[in-house]
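Q&A FORM
Asked by: J.P.
Topic: structure of non-specific serine/threonine protein kinase

PROVIDED:
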Amino acid sequence: MAFTPPKPSLSLLTFLSLLLFTYARVNLDHSDLKAFSIIHNELGINGQRSPSTTPCNNPGVFCERRLSNNNTYVLKITRLIFKSQRLTGFLSPAVGHLSELKELSLPNNQLVDQLPPQIVDCKKLEILDLGNNQFCGEVPFELSKLLRLRILDLSNNKFSGNLSFLKQFPNLERLSLANNLFTGIVPKSIRSFRNLQFFDFSGNSFLEGPVPLMSKAGSTESQYPKRYILEENNNITKGHRNISSAAGPTAASAQAPSPSSTEGKHHKGKNGRRKLSGWILGFLAGAAAGSISGFVFSVMFKLALAAIRGGGRDSGPAIFSPHVIKKAEHLAFLEKEDGLANLEVIGRGGCGEVYKAELPGSNGKMIAIKKIIQPPRDATELTEEDRKLPSDEFFQTTREMSLVKWMRNVMTSESPMQAIDPKLMGKGYEEQMLLVLKIACFCTLDDPKQRPNSKDIRCMLSQIKH
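REPLIED BY: S.T.
REPLY: Here is the structure written out as tokens.
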């Protein structure tokens, strides 16, 4: 009897089984396991339930696969969410060892003590929600190093000190510091948070200076963009809506006429409104169609007229002041060989020279004439200019083929110092150079609507000390 080889489907099934078995054997990273055990105990979770042998299976703990230094896959804790758990402990400094942590949400508990400075070691943190607890003390100044932070909620606590930690949050979208004990003034650097959509400073009675209030819309708009709103405005609006909705049915029920007497009038009024709306829509549609037709006709007429007259332009000097120089013949003297030799030079630059001359037949009108000079470059100058740009070898080690995209990724990475030339390092201006590069990244965003205007740029540049 002949030997029959195994079917390909059986081999594929065996391979998939081994792959699933390997994935199931992925364990939690040892440093994360040790840090979580400390955090678990000091938050007070131990008093409510015993920790599982695999923390990733615990409620509120989320893990993801990551490639470790020895090229093996391990599980890393990425989110810790314990909302309304009646926790009475404190946040341990061991949280800084969770290098892949993206979200830390502990709202509606009874946690005490200070916010540990080690929180700034969580470089990938995007959401920090500690609202409605009993935290106290000052917020670490280094909190602004969390460049990926999108949501920061420290409301309803006992935090004190100034707001100097609000320095650089390019990705921050939501900021709530309400009902604390903060002092000082709201920093102007908040204007540089381009993605900020909501903030709330209410309930801090020790804050000085102008704080945006929706009840004073005029003064608010002059200091803060319209996208900045307060939670107080939402509460006031909801209150007015509730009052009006509660009073509306009462008044309507008190004065509502009987249906039998108003049925005929309501039917006639409805038909009349339909006819009126139809007339209005027809008029608007006709006006729009007429405007478009007129515009298209005028464009076609101008194109036809230009084609009849000839699309080619005469060679000669270009006139940049048609209101002053009516005809090109007035500049015929420039076509002579010595046309500019007798004129007065009033300026020189890298692109040419500017001359002063009197316009013929204009009763003394003076004009400025610019002669553009582009000197030829030899091979040495071109090679020297090309050296200033990154070479092909540079882009062999990057994932981007664009210098702007490479700069953006470096500035949002954990080591933005890579963007600075090593020759400029060690002179004490690293922070200022990084700030300038961040402003440049804002000014080169793909969406022009997201780019800062000149006023915002001046505000951001004012933070540079040197």
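FOLLOW-UP: The chain has a mean pLDDT of 77.
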